[in-house]
Amino acid sequence: MSWEGYNYEDVRRAAEETTSHLTPVSLHFLENCVSCALCEVNCPYTPVGEEYGPVSKAEPLRNIYRGKVNILPRLFPWLFGAKLPKTKEELDKWVDLAYHCTNCGLCYITCPFGIHSGEMIKTLRGFLAKTGRIPSLLKLMVDAETSGMFAENPGFRGLWEDVIRKTLEVANVEFDRKGAKYLYMPSLAEAMITPGAIPATARILSKLGLNWTMPRNPLSIRAPIGSLAGDDESVRVVAKRIYDYIKSIGAEYVVFSDGGYPYTFFRFDLPRIVGEEPSFKVVHVVELLVDALREGKVKFKQTQERITWHSPCKMGRFGGLIEEPVEVLSSISQNFVKLKSHGLFSKCCGGGGSIACIVPPTQEFMEKVMGIPLKVSENEKAFLDKLYRDMLIAGREKVQEIKESGASTVVTACIGCIHTLGFTTRAYDVKVTLKTLAEVVAEALD
Amino acid sequence: MDLLDLAIYVLPPYVVATLAFGVAYRLSRYLFLWKRGYSAPRRARPIGKLLVGLVVTFLDPLVQAAKKRKSDFVGGLIALHILGVIPLIFLLSQHVAMFSYWIPLYSLLKPFAIPSSITSASQYFFANVLPASEMGWVFTNSVWGPLTLILNGDLLAILAIIGVSYKLGDKLVRLYHRLRHVRAGDFFDLALLLSILVTGFLATHHLPSPDVTTYRFMLGLHILLAELLVALLPFTKFWHFVFGYWYGKLHEWYELKFNRGSL
Ligand code: SF4
Ligand code: SF4
């Protein structure tokens, strides 16, 4: 199977597998949409085109579902919109739709019926993956992560070793130490995109006087990256590997500095995937900081700099950490300012859900790091070029908010957000410094 | 037996049976799919905030619509739902009388019944004409008082017809734009609702002609179409006001607010 191919048998089998795991919640998402299209108003991709509104992007999954699960649509598919892609072009269109979604969840809270179209679009990606349609770079990373090969790539190794060296300069860490109460879990992706966040977090943990450790070698590229492609099998393999490692350390708390999907994945999804109630608690470093601040255990150097906080969708909307970063940052800067959409409805940066990780400039960067040239077909190249242009449109509103805030530094805690905001602020010529929360805090530590 | 007799005396048991089957079928699917899974410990948030969050969860889409899609807010929500079909279905005096016949407890809502036309209220409030009959007094002295100038079947039906027509128009535009979420069922449901509203309005006004046969036909047709809607309720998107809306928003509150603490 390849990006270019089309085989109806594969499509049919993929549809069969995709509809074989219904839950009450996914059934609700599939069945109870009244197609009012209100979800469109907040989706970052609607400005790219009406066809990218959440309800329209989720419709292909409903097309699959109706034909497999309901009796009347089986008998009269044309009347009930029960269909599978019949041609390569149609399949390509479905790919285009599925990869114009960051799974930010704005549609979920905007919908009068609580339908999370983003989650359905993720399932649709799973269907497409089963037909051979995964963007090449994402596929490469999923395979490398599942097999563990990523750890052997000299480029990746170099980046990781660099970060380890910098970490040792600021903190006296004993790696992989069994019995540590706190286990810090940085990822290889952080070493690539926000390398400063890892030593910064190490500094914070040491400053807080915690009994902590971290892995000497990365355990994944970034959480199970397969979850971005809807590859459940890869997710299970990688999650289990990391879970076993955490258990081998016996930590009470697992700490994340990346507030993107790794945090919510380990905090909320892991128990379901490994089928166990974990014996540890997953926290983001901001939670430790808020506790320490409230207990008077930490003090910050004050700054007058006008800083703002971009809330990553996973950490805020899906992780419940909306006001905690504000509490920490406003105790650092007296000029802290909230963005217009701060809160539950915080606007997405436009590049999550793997989009910013697969667009052409990232591909070039990854090729350099890995030392592997990646060949993509003309067809896929056209798709990726368009995706990049569209991502910049999707990120426009966030950049506008940043501009209006007048902030000189934008702080966030998701590497995907930092990566995307790098592209979008440059594209709209908004000059701001982008920093991770851990870096800002570490700089302000007395 | 004419259409009215058929609709009133013959069909109701079949309609109720189909509805009951449909409701049982749809609800049972949710029950059968439920499996106990492992979940993360929830994030502690104060109960007061969680309750406010519950109300806000239901209000959020309305606020978003009011801010960002005004046409839908006015046409779809206010005209069609809030002022249109909801009070019409549940409080129009004829409907209250009918529901009370089937479900005696429903008669508790009689004081809130809405008159079918503006006539008695407008005469009473504007021309100072006292109602000649007992029935007239019931409406002019109802809890709605002068509000019956607005809250009456005629006006609400017109608003609801405008609302449904707006929705139909919106679907047609979307169809023209080849948006893939527009489906045949949307048109069927809206057309059915529109026919019920129009036939109800015509029957109340003894239109298109005042003779008894036409009246019985129009009222019969109105009731028959309403019965069709009730029977199809679990199999169409009309299911949203019985189940989808409540389940969806409650689940969203449970997942995001209660479990993850996103307030
Ligand atoms: S807002 Fe909800 S019900 Fe309306 S179209 Fe979007 S997903 Fe469907
Ligand atoms: S999850 Fe976000 S990007 Fe995806 S459809 Fe919903 S609002 Fe749009």
Automatic annotation (TrEMBL), chain A:
S-adenosyl-L-methionine recorded as keyword: no
Alphabetically ordered keywords of this record: 4Fe-4S, Electron transport, Iron, Iron-sulfur, Metal-binding, Transport
SUPFAM superfamilies linked: alpha-helical ferredoxin
Domain of life where this protein originates: Archaea
A single MF term (Gene Ontology): metal ion binding
Keyword Magnesium: no
Domain 4Fe-4S ferredoxin-type: 23-53, 91-121
Family matches, as Pfam families: CCG, Fer4_8
This protein's name: 4Fe-4S ferredoxin, iron-sulfur binding domain protein
Originating species: Thermofilum pendens (strain DSM 2475 / Hrk 5)
From TrEMBL, chain B:
Superkingdom to which the source organism belongs: Archaea
Gene3D superfamilies: Transmembrane di-heme cytochromes, Chain C (1.20.950.20)
Name of the protein this chain belongs to: NarG-like domain-containing protein
Source organism: Thermofilum pendens (strain DSM 2475 / Hrk 5)
